[in-house]
Design a protein that fits this description.
With 382 residues, the protein is an alpha/beta fold. The protein folds into two domains: 32-177, Rossmann fold; 202-377, Rossmann fold (3-Layer(aba) Sandwich), CATH 3.40.50.1980. The protein is 43% helix and 14% strand. It contains 16 helices and 15 strands. It has helices at residues 2-29, 31-34, 64-72, 83-90, 93-97, 116-121, 134-142, 159-173, 180-205, 235-242, 262-268, 283-287, 300-303, 324-335, 345-357, 363-369; strands at residues 36-40, 46-50, 56-58, 78-80, 109-110, 113-114, 126-130, 147-150, 215-219, 221-223, 226-230, 246-247, 257-259, 272-275, 307-309. Helix 8 (159-173) packs antiparallel against helix 9 (180-205) and helix 9 packs parallel to helix 14 (324-335). The radius of gyration is 25 Å and the shape is globular. The termini are far apart.
Length: 382
């Protein structure tokens, strides 16, 4: 009997040992326990992302530093951004609310080219890059960086859908952050607000007949030797459609920006002209013909003083960004003031930032959003 009991005890101890060993083994191979988790980026790549992220670099997806700053309500984690992002930050609301963004390094990039040695010095935990830049992806992954592709045009240049998908992805990337509940709540509120504003504008402008729609022209980039606009496949088309207007350059089907000239603008003869912050040009430059040898004087929008500089919030608002919902309201109210006379842009802007991101904007800061500094357009594009 003693031998039988001893044998039974030995068997139980062995089973217990192997059970513990298997449990230990399972714990070791679990990504989350090992300090990483998998995120599928906008290129469909499965990226192993560290759970603890303290140092962030953003390369050629220019609005993302501003999105991250507002998302965290801090820019402390951002250690590197592209020169184009920095030029906007210096001349926008971003550096006033989050002055630490000015500490981010930019010398690891020249144009769209990355200096890997300089980037390594920044020791980033994650690097965000433009999803369609395959060359940059290869450079980053070959160098061993945790590289996450973010798309700016994966949703047909729809700025609302793009912003919402950016926020969803950021929530996944930072899901193990200590304040993930706060981040998740901000993301959900921002997406709800964005969709609500979009639906409000579509509902009101849906009653505008084709003959009553405003004809608009987007001056994307402009200097004494170049004029770029938005054809059918760029952000301008989406903005025009979203607010019930016609993009006069819709016939141009080249993806992204497309070159045009003043002779063609005269043919289109738009009712309104919207100037982006990717150029230093201001409405007065068209009214007074101060750039190059152009003469805008007989274009309807210029004759009627219907030329407008886009707002400049946390980033250049022509692209998707954290300011997209407010920019959409501005576009709609500017194009059809009678339809949106009840919309108080100052009030909407203040509430948007306070209620969603816990950011308190002063009257002066809100005023500056809608009266941007021309210097924000000084990038390597010009």
């Amino acid at each position: 009997m003693k031998k039988i009991l001893s044998l039974a005890l030995a068997i139980i101890m062995c089973l217990t040992f192997f059970a513990c060993a298997n449990k230990s083994s399972d714990t070791i191979v679990t990504n989350e326990e090992a300090g990483t988790h998998i995120v599928v980026d906008h290129g469909g790549n499965e990226v192993k992302v560290p759970n603890k992220i303290e140092r962030i670099v953003v390369t050629d997806i220019f609005p993302i530093p501003a999105v991250l700053s507002v998302f965290f309500n801090s820019a402390d984690k951002i250690v590197g951004i592209a020169p184009t992002s920095m030029s906007a930050a210096k001349n926008s609301l971003l550096s006033h609310i989050y002055p630490e963004i000015l500490n981010a390094k930019t010398d690891f990039m020249s144009g769209n080219v990355i200096n890997v040695e300089e980037l390594m010095k920044l020791n980033p935990d994650v690097v965000f890059y433009s999803e369609n830049n395959n060359e940059q992806k290869e450079v980053l992954t070959n160098a061993g960086f945790c590289a996450i592709g973010i798309s700016a045009n994966g949703w047909g240049y729809n700025c609302i859908e793009t912003l919402n998908n950016w926020l969803k992805t950021l929530t996944e990337v930072f899901k193990y952050s200590d304040d993930i509940q706060v981040l998740s709540d901000r993301s959900d509120k921002a997406q709800t607000k964005s969709t609500s504003i979009y639906n409000l504008i579509k509902d009101r402008t849906s009653k505008i007949s084709e003959d009553e729609k405003k004809n608009v022209f987007f001056l994307f980039q402009y200097n004494d030797s170049m004029m770029l606009t938005s054809g059918k496949n760029f952000f301008g088309q989406w903005w025009a459609d979203a607010i019930g207007c016609k993009n006069v350059a819709e016939e141009l089907e080249k993806d992204n920006s497309v070159a045009t000239n003043l002779e063609q603008v005269y043919v289109w003869n738009p009712d309104m002209i919207f100037i982006t912050n990717f150029t230093t040009a201001l409405p007065k430059d068209l009214y007074e013909n101060t750039i190059g040898n152009y003469d805008w004087s007989e274009v309807k929008a210029v004759k009627n003083k219907d030329v407008y500089k886009l707002p400049l919030g946390m980033y250049r608002t022509y692209t998707p960004g954290i300011d997209t919902p407010i920019t959409l309201l501005w576009f709609a109210k500017t194009a059809y003031p009678e339809l949106f006379s009840d919309i108080d842009l100052v009030k909407e802007t203040r509430e948007f930032y306070k209620d969603i991101f816990d950011v308190n904007l002063s009257d002066e800061q809100i005023k500056n959003i809608f009266n941007p500094d021309a210097n924000a357009g000084r990038t390597y594009f010009n």
